[in-house]
Amino acid sequence: MSTITITGGRPLRGVLRVQGAKNSALPLLAAALLPAAGETRLFNCPAIHDVAVCLRMLRRLGCRVGQSQGVVTVDAAGAAGWELAEEDMREMRSSVLFLAPLLARFGEAEITLPGGCELGPRPIDFHLNALRQMGMEWEESHGRLLCRVPRRRLTGCEILLPLPSVGATENVLLAAVTAAGQTVVHNAAREPEIAELARFLNRCGAKIAGAGEGTLYIEGVRALHGESYTVMPDRIAAATYMAAVAVTGGDAVLEDVSVPHIYPTLPAFLQCGCRVNVEDRRLRLTAPARLRPVPYLVTGAFPGFPTDAQPLLMAMAAVAEGTSVFVETVFENRYRHAPELCRLGAGVRVEGRMAVVQGVQTLSGARVRAPDLRGGAALVVAALAAAGQTTVENARYIDRGYEDLAGALAALGAEAARTD
Ligand code: UD1
What we know:
Layout: E1 3-7, E2 13-17, H1 22-31, E3 39-43, H2 49-60, E4 64-68, E5 71-75, H3 86-91, H4 99-106, E6 108-112, H5 125-133, E7 137-141, E8 144-148, E9 158-160, H6 166-176, E10 182-186, H7 192-203, E11 207-209, E12 216-219, E13 228-230, H8 235-247, E14 251-255, H9 259-262, H10 266-271, E15 275-279, E16 282-286, E17 297-298, H11 310-317, E18 323-327, H12 338-343, E19 347-351, E20 354-358, E21 363-364, E22 367-369, H13 373-384, E23 386-387, E24 389-393, H14 395-399, H15 405-411, E25 415-419
Parallel strand pairs: 2-14, 3-13, 9-10, 17-18, 21-23, 22-24
Antiparallel strand pairs: 1-24, 1-25, 3-5, 4-5, 6-8, 7-8, 10-12, 11-12, 14-16, 15-16, 18-20, 19-20
Helix pairs in contact: 1-2, 1-7, 4-6, 5-6, 6-7, 8-11, 8-13, 11-13
The structure holds uridine-diphosphate-N-acetylglucosamine.
């Protein structure tokens, strides 16, 4: 079993470069399936498990794929298959982003329901309904969804998403860029990863306007061509390292941070008493000797506080001087880290979508289990503030989104090691 072992108590100091963003790299890799001509080249593509799964999927579909030192190349000219392996679909939710590109290229796709972190029911009804409006038909057979576009080419239309779902917005974008006519998406997600996907697709020849705003306008084009693109910095990885520095009373500089992308998280760090200085793409966080609580933190769609960073702030609240209150509005089951934090001595009480955290002076090391990707990272962060040794089991969840979390923390002076 893979574990991360941490001995807490060392203030983190130094300089760390933040990796490329998982949640941007994945839709960009799905988009790489669209161009029937020309190679897609992604720089700063993180070497994480979810990217490896995406590359395996592309290979299985017939693409030529390369990966070396942060550069990924995809040549989709020879792509021929439209069936996604159950093994790949189960492993990560983003596998559903391949649906639209497959329909656009082949008019067919065979998928199963996607897996990923268990954050409560995460259906794909918004994706399927939007694509149906664009001309897709689907039927379920033996747990597989058989999807096809009888007219072969998807058709642009007006779509209203019930919620600003990130994945559904990305799937509609990927479907609309080569659909016939215009697509308008209302209540689109405004996360920076959406604007990045649109920027990349426009470089490849798409015609998208309004990305990053609530309404997207897409003029379908006949074909896209491959392009080079640099994956944006990972805003959740940045928040992870900020939380790690904060709980240890440290003082460190993060490089390659996109400052506008982390604005929604900054007020919470400031409320906790951290000093944050930003300059270009560098961020310096100086933590106080003892953190203050977060009075009331509500997660929400961008530019709200990101749900992915909620577990990290909870790890900070666990050692703050006072009571913090969290309200999770995006996912139903996003407190699975709470009982594990309690094993380290944290005072967390969860009631429905609300969690109340009574900060304690010190946590104590224990054996805990990562419940999901960000919950696992939160346990590692809490362990940095705990007396003695903590072993976080199920580190494979953490590998889904971090290049080498233990190594990065060790580079900042933590006693952290990864074992398999
Ligand atoms: C993406 C991110 C994830 C982040 C989340 C919210 C990636 C790879 N993952 O996930 O890290 O936590 O956005 O910022 O980018 N929903 C439905 N039906 C659907 C789709 C979504 O009911 O068809 C619901 C979900 O259950 C959830 C909410 O909508 O409650 C938001 O989900 P969504 O924005 O789609 O999240 P993901 O794209 O899966």
